Amino acid sequence: MEVLKRGLVLLMVLLKRGLVLLMVFMVFQRGEGQLFENFYRGTCPNLEMIVKQVVSTKFSQTFVTIPATLRLFFHDCFVEGCDASVMIASPNGDAEKDAQDNLSLAGDGFDTVIKAKQAVEIQCPGIVSCADILALAARDVVVLAGGPSWEVELGRRDGLVSQASKVAGNLPDPEFNLVQLNTIFARNNLTQFDMIALSGAHTLGFSHCNRFSNRLYSFSSSSVVDPSLDPNYAQQLMQACPQNVDSSIAINMDPETPRTFDNVYYQNLVSGKGLFTSDEVLFSDPASQPTVSDFASNPGNFNGAFITAMRKLGRVGVKTGNEGEIRIDCTKFNS
């Protein structure tokens, strides 16, 4: 009898340990926010292939697909979390996308996600969230531009709130200093290292002249032109963006390799060719300069940091389980 009791106690201990190990394993598999890779393995096994095909087709039509989709993901995650709330179109013009800070989001990013969702709905109706499709598309455009690939954690639900009033103060400003950048990224559980890595996305895409014209024509009382700008680069910017230029005019953020995802962005910062104050401060501030110098010299280090930061970004404020919904149309709530 005593032997049987001991055997039962030992069995219970082993079962408890096994359960703990299983729970730990599940936590590591799923990551923060209950997201995990292969979330749709049983319900939509061809998901990644479908999205990749749509993104590739869209890219073949216009390069803008790449920076537009990547920027859309960032703007979505920093307001209400990664829940596709930025996709909502309001007849009253008061949704997230209508906020002043989001008016410059290129339509090709929205179009990419909408078309991918339509293609997914044909094979897997009502299964995959717009938020997950945006996360996959953001990865796919980086790869198309020559950047690294990574496994995307999935399982997000689409948000039920999209208000323009919630955007102000939640996105980085092009005039931010390092402390301001760190503060707004820290709110989203992203470190200074993550922030510098994610800033590398500025190796792609373009910006409108009014976002940096103060650096050329009215920087300070002692210097009209921002002295941290390389003089030749400043002249190039002035030629492309004369005073009172049409607000629709835009120029490449990376003057060297604007269509390639690489570490040249950081090399530009070292050379005084950062377009925004918030770019150049990453090199001019002693606290962040070593990381910029490392990324400028070591593309592998940058790629690794970018992958880690993008996976962390993708966990920000996610809705999972019974939260939110799976939108049928990415541009409007189901009800």
Automatic annotation (TrEMBL):
Annotated site location: Transition state stabilizer: R71
GO MF, any single term: metal ion binding
Main subcellular location of this protein, as a coarse class: secreted
Nucleus keyword on record: no
Gene Ontology terms: biological process: hydrogen peroxide catabolic process; response to oxidative stress
Subcellular localization: Secreted
Binding site for Ca(2+) 2: T203, D254, T257, D262
Catalytic function, reaction form: 2 a phenolic donor + H2O2 = 2 a phenolic radical donor + 2 H2O
Any one GO CC term of the record: extracellular region
Active site per the UniProt annotation: H75 (proton acceptor)
Domain Plant heme peroxidase family profile: 34-334
Listed Pfam families: peroxidase
The protein's required cofactors: Ca(2+); heme b
Disulfide-bond pairs as recorded: C44-C124, C77-C82, C130-C330, C209-C241
EC numbers on record: 1.11.1.7
Binding site for heme b: H202
Record keywords: Calcium, Disulfide bond, Heme, Hydrogen peroxide, Iron, Membrane, Metal-binding, Oxidoreductase, Peroxidase, Secreted, Transmembrane, Transmembrane helix
InterPro entries: Haem_peroxidase, Haem_peroxidase_sf, Peroxidase_pln, Peroxidases_heam-ligand_BS, Secretory_peroxidase
Binding site for Ca(2+) 1: D76, V79, G81, D83, S85, E96
Annotated positions binding substrate: P172
TM annotation in the entry: 7-28
Note on cofactor: Binds 2 calcium ions per subunit. Binds 1 heme b (iron(II)-protoporphyrin IX) group per subunit.
Role played: Removal of H(2)O(2), oxidation of toxic reductants, biosynthesis and degradation of lignin, suberization, auxin catabolism, response to environmental stresses such as wounding, pathogen attack and oxidative stress. These functions might be dependent on each isozyme/isoform in each plant tissue.
Family under the similarity heading: Belongs to the peroxidase family. Ascorbate peroxidase subfamily.
Protein name as catalogued: Peroxidase
